[in-house]
Amino acid sequence: MNTLQEQFTAEARELVQQALEDLIALEREGSAGERIDRVFRAFHTLKGSAGILDLPVMGLTMHAAEDVLAAIQTGGLELTPQVIDCALACLDLVSEWVDSFASHGSFPSDAAEAGVAVTAQLRGLLVGDELKPNLSVSSANLTSEHALPQWVAPLIDVARGRIGQKRGTKFVALSYEPRADCFFHGDDPLQTMRKVPNLCALHIEAVRPWPPLPELDPYSCNLRFQCIAAASRSELAGIFRLVPDQVRMVDIPASALIREGETGDDSRLVLVCSIVEEQLRMLRSATDREDFSGRVGSAARAAMNALRYGSRVSLSDEIERARDIALSLLEATPLLAALEKALALLGRTERVPSGSAPEPKPQPSDRAGSRSLRVDEGKIDALGNLAGELIVLKNALAYLAKRVEDESVGQDLSRAVKREADAMERLSAELHAAILQLRLVPISQVFRRFPRLVRDMAQRLDKKVTLVMQGETTEADKTIVDRLFDPLLHLVRNALDHGIESSEERRSAGKPEIGTITMRASPAGRRFIVEVSDDGRGIDPNNIRLKAAERKLLPAEELAAMPDEQAMDLIFSAGFSTTQQVSDISGRGVGMDVVRTSVQQIEGRVSLTSTVGLGTAVRLELPANIAMSQVMVVEAGGQLFGIPMDAVTETIRLAPDRISQIKNNTGFVLRDRIVPICALSGLMNLADAPRSDSAAKLLVVTEVGGKIAALEIDAIHDRLEVVLKPMQGLLSGARGYAGTTLLGNGRVLLVLDLKEVLP
Amino acid sequence: MSALRNSEGTVVLVGHCPVEDAETLLQLLQASAGAHLDWTQCSSLHTAVLQVVLAMRPALTGPCGDPFVAKWLS
């Protein structure tokens, strides 16, 4: 993909998203001029980009959407849910196309058909008012055109391209055949034709074949004038009042001109013109000499394709010639001239935005508004990796500083080294923090997709629901925010499908008819919390127990003894479903275990609370950053291991008498909970270091996935902030490790994945 | 007189071209077969003049100076 295409995909996605939000807001809050303007501009810009990139289908579709929105702007069309549905469908199509364009460099093969379907739908909205929505447009067209005299047909073709804003008026076709001696009566038929108002097409032809040149009589009129005008018969009769015997008039049904014009030639011509205009604008606005040939080449190509698409092959050829000249002269003027000429011949003068200011330059105020820079994620990652290396180096320096201190090479030197090492530590930490900041994005990036989804799902389920979003400005690492979408989608679907009751059910329960789903994000130290809650029917823990027993997840007696919270937690078990019916929204409820798994993958935790009759809340607790993690370096069996600090709840030195033997295992009681003890050296298949049984044991108490365990180790070394590198190459399949990092002395530290390690 | 031939042999229509110009134009074009016609400076023309142009089909230089003709007869 070249820069232009990359920019197009990024911009198109943003525009689609923004238009989508505005449309949903419009539906919720009613028509607001500013919003409609914004949606209109989004479609307009999309159309423009489609023109530049030579994507006629998209241009055509966007043009239709633009027309619909223009009709809403002017009050000609009401903003009904149907209109919104149509516009949303159109946006869906665009994002589909853009996705395909981004991955394959082209639109999907069915783009044309899909585009035509959506365009017809949009056009249908417009036609709806004046003409009955007519499914057989072409047949209606045929009959009306058949009734017209033959000479009218070519005129109609010309007129379609020029009808412009003259919609809704009457059209008359007129044929004027002046008498041969008319010049002697002082007639100037051309002058008469000039008086015809709203001329849409004019054709002048010889009545009889021209005689051989020497015999040509310049004062014998041999011309016939034919035209179509958006005027009434009486207006025209007034103009031709002196020659009524030489004039024939035929009414043209608007449908013959507009209906086909709307779906075909008219929009085609408009599209061709707008594409050519766009090229002019682009060529004019470019000032730098860089990439001159690329710019001229692409402008010419887009214009040529557009013209060919509009069956103006000769114009296209002219553009091609002009391009070659422009390229050889290294000067865009010839191409500009050719484009201008093409526009003029297409019957269009270039549209200059009102106020006669030429091209509105990107507004400076906009620029000041968001002083942001779009940077490829990969570049930031590269920067992050470099900072990671720096931190490794810093750790090495700290280690060196310690050695210098120990080896008493002189206090001054050791102090100096220590000072520099400290400074290095501070700076590298700041650098790393700054890079992490770069990766932070507001959670709204994922939240913003939900209003649309909730709207559609609610429609399908026939439920009434408002979606409340709070704390969207909470920031977290992009990777995490991106990966939140799926789990959140499951949760919102479940809330809507299983949580929120039908309107009748809610009414009889004395609840407000419209349900509420709340998505709330809030920062919590180094982590952040996202909560999805609903005010629906809630979950009865006894139901969960029943289902779990049905599905034989656990023995009945164990279930009965289980506290409610623990029973609720079963909802996250694989293969658990509480819904009676299978629906296409949340399927069989298999979502919840997927939620837990995917949240755990990003080091998050899920919990659920629910009150019967009042609603359910699912709480996700997630790390705000993943790039940096804290590990505790421990020694077991003569080796060093890292344990992620997230998993460590405390470290304990335990006297042997507190340890009790339970069957083959050992354990101890910690605040009324039995904690099993596992020797890390045993888990890692290492030889135990010899130690006396009477010595206190050093334990790291960990809690992973709700399970508590104590790891017996030989020593605790450091706590380090490290950048974890995932296991690579041959080791990528090794289980039990979360990754590796380099220690200050250059040794590799294996960081354990306790979920895998603990039995 | 607003139909004339310039030094390069091109037939030129200048300003308003009334009905009488039709004959002059016809003669000029007949006299020099293959002559170009420059009608860019013609501000308006009579039907008879236009008829000569349509019948003779000389090679035309530029769009017609008469905007109505330029618009509908290009």
Strand tally of chain A: 22
Shape of chain B: globular
Largest interchain contact? A-B, 24 and 22 residues
Estimate the strand proportion of chain A.
Answer: 15-25%
- The number of helices of chain B is 3
- The Cα radius of gyration of chain A reads 37 Å
For the record, the CATH architecture of the largest domain in chain A stands as 2-Layer Sandwich
Distance between the termini of chain B: 25 Å
Broad structural category of chain A: alpha+beta
- Report, as a whole number of angstroms, the end-to-end distance of chain A: 49 Å
β content of chain B, as a range? 25-35%
Estimated radius of gyration of chain B: 11 Å
Give the averaged pLDDT of chain A, no decimals.
79
Q: Give me the side-by-side strand order of the main sheet of chain B.
A: 1-2-4-6
Shape of chain A: elongated
User: How many distinct domains of chain A?
Assistant: 5
Give the biggest beta sheet of chain B. 4 strands, mixed
* Fold-level CATH name of the largest domain in chain A: Heat Shock Protein 90
The largest sheet of chain A is: 6 strands, mixed
Average pLDDT number of chain B: 85
Low-confidence stretches of chain B: none
What's the gist of this structure?
Chain A has 759 residues and is of the alpha+beta class. Chain A folds into 5 domains: 1-133, Four Helix Bundle (Hemerythrin (Met), subunit A); 137-263, no CATH class; 377-439; 443-539 and 578-623, 2-Layer Sandwich (Heat Shock Protein 90), CATH 3.30.565.10; 629-757, CheA-289, Domain 4 (OB fold (Dihydrolipoamide Acetyltransferase, E2P)).
Describe the fold and architecture.
The complex is a heterodimer of chains A (759) and B (74). Chain A folds into 5 domains: 133 residues, HPT domain (Four Helix Bundle (Hemerythrin (Met), subunit A)), CATH 1.20.120.160; 127 residues, no CATH class; 63 residues; 143 residues, Histidine kinase-like ATPase, C-terminal domain (Heat Shock Protein 90, 2-Layer Sandwich), CATH 3.30.565.10; 129 residues, CheA-289, Domain 4 (OB fold (Dihydrolipoamide Acetyltransferase, E2P)). The two termini of chain A are 49 Å apart. Chain A contains 27 helices and 22 strands. With 759 residues, chain A is α+β, with helices and mostly antiparallel strands. With 74 residues, chain B is α/β, with parallel strands linked by helices. Chain B has one domain. In chain B, 36% of the residues lie in helices and 26% in strands. Chain B contains 3 helices and 6 strands. The N and C termini of chain B lie far apart (25 Å). The mean pLDDT of chain B is 85. Chains A and B meet through helix 8 and strand 2 of A and helix 1, helix 2 and helix 3 of B.
